[in-house]
Write a sequence for this structure.
C-alpha cells in the first residue's frame, strides 16, 4: 500500500514536469498551426547543452539554465524565421517533413559528437529526499514539478498580460486582422517558437537530471509531448497541466502495477484510449 | 487540332513502352553479365525504390504522412524468419506471409489511424512502431532483443535475392500505377484536393485510404522480408529503426512527392549517396545528418523534388497516372491563358 502511495506521489510530481514537456508543442500547434516533430529532440539537445556548460562552469544543472534558456530561445527563433516561416500556407505536409528532417539532423549530430552512451546531468539533489509519514518525497522530483507548474503559470500570465502575449494570441485567432492591426506575423511566430523552445529547454534540463538520456531519446519525449497535447486539448495552457498529471500518473502507477518494463507501454495505451474515446482532448472547449 | 494531339500522345506512349521494356530487360539480365558490386547496388535500389513508392502512395496521393513504415519492415522480416525457422515454410511463401501479417496489422490499426489527419496520423504511426519494437524485443521465440537468423537464407545466392528485389520493384511500381489509374485513384486525387467536396460527391474516403494502407503495408512487409533475407540476421532495433522511414522520406522528397518516377530517381540517388557516404571513414552518423540537410533544403527550395521541377519546366511525364483524356478532349473546356 505504501508502495502504491509512493507511486501516486511520484506520478503526480512527474506529471507537473510532463506538462512542461508538452507545453511548447501544444502552444506551437495552437498558434503557428504546425506540428513540431523535433520537439523531443530539441529537449534532448538542451540536455546536452546543459551537460557541456556544466563541464565549463563546474556548476549544477539548474545553474546552466542561465545559458541554456537564451540559447534555446535563439535556436527556436532562428529555426522559425529561416525555415518554418517559409513553408507556412503550403499545407500540412512541408512543415511536418521539415521538422522531421530537423529531428533526424539533431539526433545524429548528437550521436556524432557525444556517442550513443547514456548521459546524466549529475545533480547534488538527486539522492536527497524527505519523508512525509510513511512515504519519502524525492527533492528533485518536487523541484521539477514546481518549476514545471511555474513555467505554465508564467506562460499563462505572459499570454494574458503582455503586449507580445496579446499579439501572439491575436495572430493565432485571426492572422489577417492581426496583420492589419500592425502585428509583425513572421517575427511573432519566431518569438512564439523561441518561447516554446525555452519551455522545452527548461523541461529538458530537469528531465536530464532525473533520468538517463541518449541522442535517440527525442522520440520518447515527443510521444510524451504528443500525449499531453492530445489529452489536454490543443492550445489550452492549463489543460496541458492536467494532461501532464494524468499521463505521469498513468505511467508511474502503471509501471508500479505491471513492472517497470511496461511503464512506456502503459503510457502508449493511455494515449491510444484517449485517441479512440476523445481525440479532441479532455479540456478543449 | 485534337487529332494531332492524340497522335502525339500515342507515339510518345510507344517510345515510352519500348524504353521501359528495355530497362526491364537490362535489369533481368544483369546478374548474367554484371559484377558483384553492380548486382548488390541494383538489389538495394530495388528495395529502396519500392520502399519509397509505398510511402509515396500514402503521403503523396492519400495525404497520410506515415512515420511508422519501419513497423511493417520489422514485422515482415520477423515473419519470414518465424515461418521458415519454426514452420519450415519455403522463403517465397514466408515473404507472402510477412506481407499478409503486416497488412493484417495495418487493417487493425486503420480503424483508429484513418480517423486522424495530419500530425495525429504521423505521430500515431510513429508511436505504434515504437510500441511494436518494445513488444518484439520482449518475446522469447523472437530472440528477445538478440534478433533471429533466417537460417534458410544462408543458402541463397546474391542473384536470388536480386531477383526478389527486382520483382518487388516492378510489382510495387505497377501496383501503384494501376491503383491510381483506377476509380480508387481518381477518388484519392479528389480527396487530396478537397476532402469535403469529394465525400459529398460520393467518394468513399475511408475505403479508398484503407486500400492504400493495405497495399502499402503488404508490400513494405515483403520489402522487409527481402532485405533481411540478404542480411540473414535480423537485429530488431535496426529492423524497427526510424531510419527506414527517414530513407523513404528522403527518396520521395528528393525525387518528387506525388509522382511515380520521383521515388525511382530518389531511390537511385539514395543508394549511390548512402554507399558513397559509407565509404568515407570517420563520418559515422553524419551521413544521416547530410541526408537530413539535403531533404530539408529540397523542401525549402524545390518543394516538388527533381521530377516535379522537371515536369513543371518541360511539361512532360514519363509515367503518368493521370487518366488519358484523349478521347474526351472534345468535351473539355477550351484551355484559357493563365
Amino acid at each position: 500500500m505504501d508502495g502504491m502511495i509512493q507511486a501516486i506521489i511520484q506520478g503526480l510530481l512527474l506529471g507537473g514536469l510532463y506538462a512542461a514537456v508538452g507545453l511548447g508543442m501544444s502552444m506551437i500547434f495552437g498558434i503557428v498551426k504546425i506540428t513540431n516533430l523535433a520537439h523531443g529532440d530539441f529537449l534532448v539537445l538542451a540536455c546536452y547543452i546543459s551537460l557541456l556548460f556544466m563541464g565549463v562552469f563546474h556548476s549544477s544543472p539548474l545553474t546552466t539554465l542561465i545559458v541554456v534558456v537564451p540559447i534555446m530561445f535563439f535556436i527556436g527563433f532562428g529555426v522559425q524565421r529561416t525555415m518554418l516561416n517559409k513553408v507556412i500556407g503550403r499545407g500540412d505536409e512541408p512543415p511536418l517533413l521539415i521538422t522531421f528532417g530537423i529531428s533526424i539532423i539533431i539526433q545524429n549530430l548528437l550521436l556524432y559528437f557525444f556517442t550513443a552512451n547514456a548521459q546524466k546531468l549529475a545533480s547534488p539533489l538527486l539522492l536527497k529526499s524527505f519523508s512525509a509519514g510513511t512515504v519519502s518525497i524525492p527533492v528533485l522530483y518536487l523541484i521539477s514539478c514546481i518549476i514545471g507548474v511555474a513555467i505554465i503559470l508564467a506562460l499563462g500570465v505572459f499570454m494574458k498580460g503582455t503586449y507580445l502575449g496579446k499579439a501572439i494570441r491575436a495572430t493565432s485567432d485571426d492572422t489577417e486582422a492581426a496583420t492589419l492591426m500592425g502585428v509583425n506575423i513572421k517575427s511573432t511566430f519566431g518569438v512564439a517558437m523561441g518561447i516554446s523552445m525555452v519551455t522545452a529547454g527548461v523541461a529538458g534540463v530537469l528531465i536530464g537530471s532525473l533520468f538517463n538520456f541518449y541522442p535517440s531519446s527525442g522520440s520518447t519525449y515527443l510521444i510524451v509531448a504528443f500525449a499531453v497535447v492530445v489529452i489536454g486539448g490543443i492550445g489550452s495552457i492549463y489543460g496541458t497541466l492536467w494532461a501532464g498529471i494524468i499521463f505521469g500518473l498513468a505511467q508511474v502507477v502503471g509501471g508500479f502495477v505491471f513492472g517497470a518494463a511496461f511503464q512506456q507501454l502503459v503510457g502508449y495505451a493511455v494515449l491510444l484510449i484517449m485517441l479512440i474515446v476523445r481525440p479532441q482532448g479532455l479540456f478543449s472547449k | 487540332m485534337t487529332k494531332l494531339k492524340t497522335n502525339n500522345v500515342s507515339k510518345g506512349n510507344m517510345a515510352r513502352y519500348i524504353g521501359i521494356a528495355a530497362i526491364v530487360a537490362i535489369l533481368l539480365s544483369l546478374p548474367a553479365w554484371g559484377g558483384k558490386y553492380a548486382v548488390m547496388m541494383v538489389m538495394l535500389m530495388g528495395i529502396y525504390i519500392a520502399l519509397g513508392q509505398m510511402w509515396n502512395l500514402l503521403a503523396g496521393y492519400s495525404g497520410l504522412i506515415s512515420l511508422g513504415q519501419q513497423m511493417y519492415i520489422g514485422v515482415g522480416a520477423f515473419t519470414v524468419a518465424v515461418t521458415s525457422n519454426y514452420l519450415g515454410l519455403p522463403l517465397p511463401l514466408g515473404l507472402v506471409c510477412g506481407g499478409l501479417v503486416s497488412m493484417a496489422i495495418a487493417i487493425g490499426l486503420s480503424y483508429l489511424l484513418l480517423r486522424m489527419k495530419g500530425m495525429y496520423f504521423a505521430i500515431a504511426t510513429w508511436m505504434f512502431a515504437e510500441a511494436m519494437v518494445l513488444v518484439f524485443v520482449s518475446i522469447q521465440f523472437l530472440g528477445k532483443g538478440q534478433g533471429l537468423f533466417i537460417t534458410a537464407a544462408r543458402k541463397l545466392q546474391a542473384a536470388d535475392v536480386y531477383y526478389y528485389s527486382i520483382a518487388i520493384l516492378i510489382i510495387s511500381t505497377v501496383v501503384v500505377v494501376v491503383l491510381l489509374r483506377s476509380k480508387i485513384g481518381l477518388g484519392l486525387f479528389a480527396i487530396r484536393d478537397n476532402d469535403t467536396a469529394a465525400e459529398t460527391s460520393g467518394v468513399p474516403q475511408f475505403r479508398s485510404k484503407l486500400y492504400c494502407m493495405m497495399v502499402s503495408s503488404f508490400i513494405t512487409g515483403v520489402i522487409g522480408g527481402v532485405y533481411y533475407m540478404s542480411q540473414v540476421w535480423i537485429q530488431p532495433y535496426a529492423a524497427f529503426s526510424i531510419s527506414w522511414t527517414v530513407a523513404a522520406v528522403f527518396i520521395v522528397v528528393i525525387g518528387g512527392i506525388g509522382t511515380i518516377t520521383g521515388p525511382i530517381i530518389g531511390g537511385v540517388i539514395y543508394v549511390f549517396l548512402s554507399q558513397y557516404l559509407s565509404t568515407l571513414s570517420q563520418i559515422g552518423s553524419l551521413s544521416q545528418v547530410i541526408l537530413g540537410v539535403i531533404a530539408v533544403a529540397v523542401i525549402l527550395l524545390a518543394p516538388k523534388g527533381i521530377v516535379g521541377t522537371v515536369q513543371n519546366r518541360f511539361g512532360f511525364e514519363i509515367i503518368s497516372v493521370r487518366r488519358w483524356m484523349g478521347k474526351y478532349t472534345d468535351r473539355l473546356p477550351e484551355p484559357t491563358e493563365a
Observations:
- Chain A touches chain B through 38 residues (CB under 8 Å).
